[in-house]
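Appendix B, Record 12. Input sequence as logged:
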Amino acid sequence: MRILTLTPENQKNILNDLLKRSPNHYASYMDSVNEIIQRVRTEGDTALLDYTRQFDHCEISPEDLPVTQEEIRDAYQETDPEFLATLRRAAENIRCYHEKQRRYSWFDPTPGGSILGQKVTPLKRVGVYVPGGKAAYPSSVLMNVIPARVAGVEEIVMVTPPGRDGRVNSGTLVAAREAGVDHIYKAGGAQAVAALAFGTGTIPRVDKIVGPGNIFVALAKKAVFGYVGIDSIAGPSEILVLADETANPRFVAADLLSQAEHDELASAILVTTSRDLAGQVSAQIHDMASRLPRRDIMEKSLENYGYILVASSMEEAVEAVDAIAPEHLEIMTKNAFSLMPQIHNAGAIFIGEYSSEPLGDYFAGPNHILPTNGTARFFSPLSVDDFVKKSSIIAYTRQELESVWRDVERFAQNEGLTAHANSVRVRFEEED
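Logged structural output:
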C-alpha cells in the first residue's frame, strides 16, 4: 500500500478517487437499465424471463419463478447444522438490537382540548433484493429482512437470481426462512428491481425496495425511486482504520484486507499518527495478502483505492476521517472511546482492537447495510425506521381554533393564498 503524508491536496485527491466509484458516475449504463425497466413494466413476466435467460443463462417458466416449500426443505437438508446454529444466533442478535429501535405512535392532548400526535404505520409490502451469481450472502438476508419484520411489515417479498440450474443458494433460502420472508422469487438484476417496483403477473408490486446489488441493480433502484421507496444507492465497500502507535499492525492489516477482498472497487484506508505503524502495516498487508485465496482482488483493490495516510496530529487525523465519511470506521488508539464523540461522519464505528469489522458484518447485531461513498455525512445505517412511515395527527376543537384562526388567516393572506384564509374564516363568519 502507498504511504502518503496527510495533506489537504492528498485528501482532496483521495476523496475524488473514492467518489468515482459511486453509481452516479456510471451514467453510460442508464440507457440499458431504463430499457430493461420499461420492458418489464409493459411486458411483465415475459420480459423478466427473457432477461433471466439472457443474463443468468437460466431457462425457467412463470410457474418456476416462486421458490417452493420443497426447495426450502432441500436447502435445510443441504445446510451444515453448525452453520445453521450460527446463523440462528446471529439472527437473534440482530433481532434484539433492532427491537430497541422500534418507534411508537404518540398523542399529546392540550388543556384546551386539541390533540397533536404522530401515527407510526409499518409499510404494507417490502421487496428485498439479494445478490446471487458468484457469491451468496445469507448475512445480507438477515440484515434486510429482520428490521422489516421487527417494524411490523405485513408482507416481505425477496428476489434473488437463480443459478444456471434454476436453483437458489441453500444458505440464502435458509436465511430467508429464518428471518421471516413470505415469498421468494428467482429473479435478479435490474429486471428484478423493475418487477418489484411495478409488479408482473407473478411478482407483486411493493412499497419499498431494499438490499445491495451490482451497478445495474443500484441504477435500477435509482430509476424507480419515486414509484417506490428505496433504502439507498449503495456503492463499493470501504473501511477506514484510525490508529496511533499503540495499535497492533497485524490486526490493522487483517481488517484492511477484510474489506479489500470484496471486489476491485473496495477501499481500505489507514489514517495514523505513527509513521512506524504505517510501515509495519504495509509489510503485514503484503505478507498476509500473498497467502489468502482472494489475493488478486485484494491487490487490485489496494492498488486503486488503498492508502496509508500519516497525520501530524490526532486532530488532523480525525478531520480526515470526517471528510472521508467511511462506511466502516475502526478506532485503534490508546483512548479509543474518548475519540468516538469527535467523529461525526461514519456508517458504523468499531471501538478497540477486538471489535473487528467482520463482527459487525455477521454477528454483533447492528445493521451492516451502511452508507458508502461519503454519504455517511447525511445517511444512516438501515434500521427499523426504514420500514415504517409516520403520519401527523391534528385534532382541534372549535374553542382551540377560535383562539388562533386569525393567525392562520393572516399567514395565508401574507402568502397570497386567499382560499386558505377563507377555509378558516368560514368557520367563524357569523362572528364577523
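The chain has 18 helices and 14 strands.
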